[in-house]
Structures are given as structure tokens and as C-alpha cells.
Amino acid sequence: MTARRTRLIVALDTKDTAQAIRWRDQTALSADAIKLGLEFTYARGLDAVRQVADGGTLFLDLKLHDIPNTVGSAIGSLAALRPAMLTIHALGGGAMIAAARAAIDRAFPAGARPLLLAVTVLTSMDQDALHGIGIPDDPCAEVLRLGALAMAAGADGLVCSPLEIAPIRDRLGAAPVLVVPGIRPAGAASGDQKRIMTPAEASRAGADWIVVGRPITQAADPGAAAAAVAAELAG
């Protein structure tokens, strides 16, 4: 059990700016933040990201993964967006994560530094998928290994599936901010997600933030769907 309040990020996964703004507005009463990722940013660019974020709490999910110098330089280019959270891949290694940390500390004012979140193992991957790319561990063991590496290198938190929340808390304690995709309300289709929980289950396990996209944005009434998730989190 956890006493922390789990907050809701609505994933605005679309290539269309007007659609992203509609979803943002429809879910504004229930969402604590919005997520814009690769799909929208590649299609519309940084100016559109700024337009949709409109000064609100932005989770910028670009999963940066390159040599340390390139990742550091890219983070400097994102400073004008003032995201509250941004992502890198933990598989980039300790030097890359440390370079990202240093770039944030240089590029952002002290009171406006985003949380640096390291993506561990994608929620679409299971043990067979990991073995297919030469990783012998099961997903939980790999998440714990990468999570410890990322936190030691300067990350503020981790992106993990809900199934790894409790093991991370057991191993790394309360320090990592845990942002958790792979959330499916009861009765929702799992889609391409392999390691999932309901909002309430993830909250009880110790998630700081949950990320919900299609179960909200593809609902007949996205506002009502977001409100239902928020109510479930509130208990």
C-alpha cells in the first residue's frame, strides 16, 4: 500500500493538432498532465507541442537514446518547451544518462527543471521479446537492473510497467518517481500492452503517475472516461 497520490497523465497519441487540443480540453478536469510523444512531435514539430501544452503540465515522451553528447544537445534544444517530465532510454547507459542530467541542469532554470525519467523495458515486451534481442533476464529482473543503473547515473525516476512497481519500491525505495503506462481499466482491451494493471491496482502498488491513452481518447466520451479513471485513483 502507498500513501502517495497517484496522478493521471492522458496520452494524446495523434498526428493531428486539432484532435490533440480537443482531447486536452475534454479531459482537462480530470487529467493532471498530458503526454505528447513521438507520433505527434514527428508529425507536427515542437511549435505544435508548445501549442497543445499551452503552459500546462507536459510529459514529453521522446525516449532519447543516442551517444551522450547528442542526447545532451537534444535536451538543450527542448528547453524552450518547459516540459515537466521527459524521457530517455535506460539502455543508453550510465554515461548517456549522466549527460542528460548535466544537460537539464545547464539548460533549465533551477525551479523549472523537468523530471528526467529513464524508460526501462517497454510495456509491449514480454520475456520472449527480451530473449529475442539477446537479453536473458525476465522483464522484472531487467527493469530492476536498468532502474538501479539509471538512478545511480542521475535519473529522477523510471518508466516501467505496473508489474514492476512493487519490486522497484522493494529494491530502490521511495526515491524513484514512477511513471507507469500499461494501464487498462477493467474491461478495456489490452491492445499491444503485455504487462498491465488497472488504475487502482497500479496506485496501490505505488505508482506516482499512470499514463492512459486509448481507453480514454478512443472512448465515446473521453471526458467521462478520464473522470472514471480519476475517480478510481481517488478510491
TrEMBL record:
Keywords: Decarboxylase, Lyase, Pyrimidine biosynthesis. Pathway: Pyrimidine metabolism; UMP biosynthesis via de novo pathway; UMP from orotate: step 2/2. The active site is at 63 (proton donor). Substrate binds at residues 13, 35, 61-70, 123, 184, 193, 213-214. It catalyses: orotidine 5'-phosphate + H(+) = UMP + CO2. It comes from the Bacteria. PROSITE patterns: OMPDECASE. It is an enzyme of class 4 (lyase). Residues 7-229 form the Orotidine 5'-phosphate decarboxylase domain. GO terms for molecular function: orotidine-5'-phosphate decarboxylase activity. It holds the Pfam family OMPdecase. Its EC number is 4.1.1.23. InterPro entries: Aldolase_TIM, OMPdecase, OMPdecase_AS, OMPdecase_bac, OMPdeCOase_dom, RibuloseP-bd_barrel. Catalyzes the decarboxylation of orotidine 5'-monophosphate (OMP) to uridine 5'-monophosphate (UMP). NCBIfam families: PRK00230.1, pyrF. Homodimer. Belongs to the OMP decarboxylase family. Type 1 subfamily. This is Orotidine 5'-phosphate decarboxylase. It comes from Nguyenibacter vanlangensis.
